[in-house]
Write a structure and sequence with these properties.
heterodimer; A: about 110 residues; mainly beta; 3-stranded antiparallel sheet; B: about 110 residues; 4-stranded antiparallel sheet
Chain lengths: ~110, ~110
């Protein structure tokens, strides 16, 4: 079975401080992992996907298969980063290339001025 | 390029009633997924439609059903509503069979009383 765990429900940091949002997963196959973000009164939107190995809004996330983790990091947090962040794992259905997302419960990040 | 639109935005129903939620997928996307998000939880996969056929289902009873139309829009139907069905229902569309992420709608907030 697959599972995505975000251990912190709430995380607060001051502006300019580094931030790390933790995500651990359990999955027997080859994982495809994503970070989604939801700003206040906005819809859920894709932030990062691990296959792209990209940096968006200063955030990066590295897949660590040994530790089964996909932590989201930013060296200098900004007030506009305050939002709910969800880690998600995409699992392809058997016999199909289509997949479904499994989400963690989310971490509410607050960046204080 | 239009995004994913859902209607209605809010809905109040009585226990035992039936409800239909609607979703228009993003232009060019042929896959639609539905998720249920209870308060304080991450979205949970209900089912997915690809080319008008159900392709993957989560752990939801048969009273949750859906349709996808030739224009790739979709409906979620819930029969015999229960109080626990109160949640935010999210529709997500994707191209590339989901490998590149999903575009989410703003959701329908369903309250069952």
């Amino acid at each position: 079975a697959q599972r995505v765990t975000q251990p912190e429900k709430l995380l607060s940091v001051f502006k300019g401080a580094p931030v790390e949002l933790k995500c651990n997963y359990s999955y027997s196959g080859s994982p495809e992992l994503f970070w989604y973000v939801q700003y206040s009164r906005q819809r859920l939107q894709l932030l990062l996907r691990h296959i792209s190995r990209e940096s968006i809004k200063g955030f990066t996330a590295d897949l660590n298969k040994g530790e089964t983790s996909f932590h989201l990091k930013k060296p200098f947090a900004q007030e506009e980063d305050s939002a709910m962040y969800y880690c998600a794992l995409r699992r392809a259905d058997r016999g199909s290339t289509l997949g479904r997302l499994y989400f963690g419960r989310g971490t509410q990040l607050t960046v204080w001025p | 390029e239009t995004g994913v639109t859902q209607s209605p935005t809010h809905l109040i129903k009585t226990r035992g009633q039936q409800v239909t939620l609607r979703c228009s997928s993003q232009s060019g996307h042929n896959t639609v997924s539905w998720y249920q998000q209870a308060l304080g939880q991450g979205p949970q996969f209900i089912f997915q439609y690809y080319r008008e056929e159900e392709n993957g289902r989560g752990n939801f009873p048969p009273r949750f059903s859906g349709l996808q139309f030739p224009n790739y829009s979709s409906e979620l139907n819930v029969n015999a509503l229960e109080l626990d069905d109160s949640a935010l229902y999210l529709c997500a569309s994707s191209g590339g069979q989901g490998m590149y992420g999903y575009t989410f709608g703003s959701g329908t907030r369903l309250t069952v009383v």
